[in-house]
């Protein structure tokens, strides 16, 4: 499968897997009943949580405070206008009203306006408020609400009675009744439902849902104790908090979509980081798979810990993500991957801000401690500094938030200590990852390049000339790699082992021969070529027998590529004019270099070996030699599969010339002390 399909696909799988494992439904693992004994062991609070009031107690307190709540109403001015317009129209058009004397009309008009200005309510609203504790309501006018007593308002019935009861003695009540006054009396004090509901909720919120707090580490109950009323309330509160933190009893699709979006955004940012800032790592399937597996493992472990309440999250050694990625890849990628892991985990844990601050501080310190990773002891040393970081950051937060250390939960320090022990195992994890993924760490390269290693000591004893050649090749290769930004440690180690196959027949190679001794004399050219070529196959066998990493074996296989030992090939051609040689007999098995490091190695090996044959070591002669050898390799296409540019090759040439000038520089001739003539 192509990289452009494989890499996005595994990122999508990672997003879906993490979304699936995210906590959705909390399940409290304890069963309890009021008045019954506690059947489990000692239970202490793992974190701070409030003691929630029971539903009955909360409702009672809310009902109690609602006695002083006042509903909101608004005055409908259109009701009065419409009623008076209808009355005036009927005075002109209704035969009944036209027959009523003018003084009755004036009285009705004035009285109806007076009643509307006071306010008319529905009888149900009036009775409800009259029966309340306050017997008052609020009239809203714009953004201002004024409290008024319910007795100052009318219902339709009391308004009609008011008109009849207030009639002057000079007027006849029966005439008023014939005017159908009810037709002009309507409610103009209208209930404002939205404002009332909002005000009611704000009023209810004055009642606290909790009645105290349980501190982290506080003892709740032990086995055999009776669950009394207060303990039952605390346990119920603990259960409620646990379910809320782990997702509650039900989850709707909107929450799941939200989780999917957040996880996609975070892993998507990591994908874009690799694509634009680490393209070499992006194309390395093993590296991408390794980093995603680390992120998934720690996020899944966090999710299971929170969902099942396995243990405190501070026991989980998140710094291992930083350490392993730093060991096998680089510091920036390690920090970015750790940030993604910590942010995803923070979505699930209690007190996410404190969690992120502590974990990010540990990640940053581990990056600093492993800046120059060359010894496994650095992994152990970094564990101690990570532990100190955890402790200092936690205590600093407690002092900042609480003002003293009195409220510090000292059990958390035990969690940090357990975390430290797990981080110590990163030493062995490095070895396991190397074997599982075929990686090679900088630590392993430093250890392998120790010339006291048994295999290198054997090489120095059996083939001393080859050993010296390997040292010089490693120096050339390291200098060129440092200039190009390649892996200098990898080239150094690969160069030291690239010719170990020569230990099988060391005398057949010129650097190990003494003057006057040449085992090739008398041998057919084909046989000599076979012995020379076989040092690659022999080297691979020796490397595999000694469990050398594949990355080092790559240097053994590619340092000659598919080139020829031209001395014997040309000698055969000269000895057999007119005949066609079987080139397969005279060609190395390859493959050709396929990385920047193996390409540099091939150039360094050929240049160093050929430089020994020069008669004089001037800058011009060294430049001509380097150009001739490397240009020949380039022309024969040995670097086609390696990601090295013409500019890189020119840089390598310049470095080689400078290094060879230093190696073969002329030495001054020391003068001899002249003896004075004795008298």
Compact summary:
By secondary structure, this protein is mainly α. It has 29 helices and ten strands.
Number of domains: 3
Mean pLDDT equals 87
Low-confidence stretches: none
Report the CATH architecture of the largest domain. Orthogonal Bundle
Classify the helix fraction into a percent range.
55-70%
Number of strands: 10
Strand order of the largest sheet: 6-5-3-8
Beta-strand percentage range:
5-15%
- Give the N-to-C terminal Cα separation: 94 Å
By DSSP (H or I, 4+ residues per run), the number of helices equals 29
Fill in the CATH topology of the largest domain.
Answer: Hypothetical protein af1432
Biggest beta sheet summary:
4 strands, mixed
What are the salient characteristics of this protein?
679 residues; Arp2/3 complex 21 kDa subunit ARPC3; Hypothetical protein af1432; 3 domains; 4-stranded mixed sheet; two-stranded antiparallel ribbon; 60% helix
Layout of helices and strands, plus pairs?
Blueprint: H1 3-21, E1 43-44, E2 49-52, H2 55-66, E3 72-75, H3 77-93, H4 95-99, H5 102-118, E4 120-121, H6 123-130, E5 136-141, E6 144-149, E7 154-155, H7 156-165, H8 173-177, E8 189-191, H9 193-204, E9 210-214, E10 219-221, H10 229-245, H11 253-277, H12 279-282, H13 285-308, H14 319-328, H15 331-346, H16 352-369, H17 377-402, H18 411-424, H19 426-437, H20 442-448, H21 454-462, H22 464-484, H23 488-497, H24 525-545, H25 550-558, H26 566-575, H27 596-611, H28 619-635, H29 646-663
Helix pairs in contact: 1-11, 1-13, 3-5, 11-15, 13-15, 14-15, 14-16, 15-16, 16-17, 17-18, 20-23, 21-22, 22-23, 22-27, 22-29, 23-25, 23-27, 24-25, 24-26, 27-28, 27-29, 28-29
């Amino acid at each position: 499968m192509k990289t452009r399909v494989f890499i996005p696909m595994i990122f999508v799988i990672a997003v879906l897997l993490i979304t699936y494992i995210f906590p959705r439904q909390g399940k409290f693992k304890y069963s309890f009943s009021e008045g019954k004994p506690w059947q489990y062991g000692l239970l202490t609070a793992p974190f701070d949580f409030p003691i929630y009031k029971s539903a009955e107690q909360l409702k009672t307190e809310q009902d109690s405070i609602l006695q002083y709540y006042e509903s909101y109403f608004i005055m409908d001015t259109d009701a009065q206008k419409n009623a008076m317009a209808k009355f005036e129209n009927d005075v002109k058009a209704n035969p009944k009203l036209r027959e009523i004397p003018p003084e009755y009309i004036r009285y009705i008009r004035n009285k109806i306006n007076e009643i509307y200005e006071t306010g008319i309510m529905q009888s149900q609203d009036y009775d409800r408020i009259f029966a309340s504790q306050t017997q008052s309501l609020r009239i809203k006018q714009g953004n201002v609400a004024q409290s008024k007593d319910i007795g100052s308002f009318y219902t339709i019935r009391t308004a009609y009675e008011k008109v009849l009861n207030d009639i002057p003695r000079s007027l006849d009540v029966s005439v008023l009744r014939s005017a159908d006054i009810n037709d002009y009396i309507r409610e103009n004090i209208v209930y404002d439902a939205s404002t009332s509901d909002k005000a009611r909720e704000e009023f209810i919120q004055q009642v606290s849902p909790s009645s105290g707090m349980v501190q982290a580490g506080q003892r709740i109950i032990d086995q055999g104790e009776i669950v009394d009323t207060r303990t039952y309330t605390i346990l119920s509160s603990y259960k409620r908090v646990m379910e809320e933190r782990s997702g509650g009893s039900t989850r709707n699709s909107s929450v799941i979509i939200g989780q999917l979006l957040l996880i996609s955004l975070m892993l998507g940012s990591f994908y874009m980081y690799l694509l634009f800032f680490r393209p070499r790592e992006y194309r390395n399937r093993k590296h991408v798979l390794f980093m995603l597996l680390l992120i998934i493992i720690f996020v899944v472990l966090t999710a299971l810990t929170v969902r099942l309440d396995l243990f405190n999250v501070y026991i989980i050694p998140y710094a291992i993500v930083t350490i392993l990625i730093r060991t096998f890849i680089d510091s920036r990628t390690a920090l970015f991957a750790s940030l993604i892991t910590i942010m995803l985990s923070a979505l699930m844990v209690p007190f996410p801000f404190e969690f992120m601050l502590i974990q990010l501080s540990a990640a940053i310190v581990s990056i600093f401690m492993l800046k120059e990773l060359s010894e496994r002891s650095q992994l152990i040393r970094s564990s101690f500094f990570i532990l100190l970081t955890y402790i200092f950051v936690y205590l600093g937060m407690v002092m900042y938030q609480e003002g003293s250390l009195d409220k510090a939960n000292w059990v958390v320090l035990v969690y940090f200590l357990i975390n430290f022990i797990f981080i110590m195992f990163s030493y062995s994890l490095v070895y396991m990852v190397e074997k599982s993924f075929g990686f090679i760490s900088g630590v392993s390269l430093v250890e392998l390049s120790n010339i006291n290693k048994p295999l290198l000591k054997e090489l120095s004893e059996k083939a001393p000339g080859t050993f010296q050649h390997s040292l010089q090749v490693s120096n050339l290769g390291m200098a060129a790699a440092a200039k190009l930004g390649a892996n200098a440690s990898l080239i150094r180690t690969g160069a030291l082992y690239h010719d170990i196959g020569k230990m099988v027949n060391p005398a057949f190679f010129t650097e190990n021969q003494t003057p006057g001794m040449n085992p090739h004399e008398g041998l057919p050219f084909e046989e000599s070529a076979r012995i020379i070529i076989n040092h690659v196959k022999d080297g691979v066998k020796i490397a595999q027998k000694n469990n050398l990493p594949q990355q080092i074996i790559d240097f053994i296989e590619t340092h000659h590529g598919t080139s020829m030992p031209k001395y014997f090939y040309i000698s055969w051609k000269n000895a057999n004019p007119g005949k066609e040689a079987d080139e397969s007999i005279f060609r190395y098995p390859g493959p050709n270099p396929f990385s920047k490091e193996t390409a540099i190695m091939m150039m360094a090996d050929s240049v160093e070996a050929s430089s020994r044959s020069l008669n004089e070591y001037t800058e011009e002669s060294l430049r001509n030699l380097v150009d001739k050898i490397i240009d020949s390799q380039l022309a024969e296409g040995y670097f086609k599969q390696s990601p090295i540019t013409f500019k890189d090759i020119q840089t390598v040439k310049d470095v080689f010339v400078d290094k060879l000038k230093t190696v073969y520089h002329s030495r001054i001739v020391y003068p001899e002390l002249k003896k004075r003539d004795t008298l």
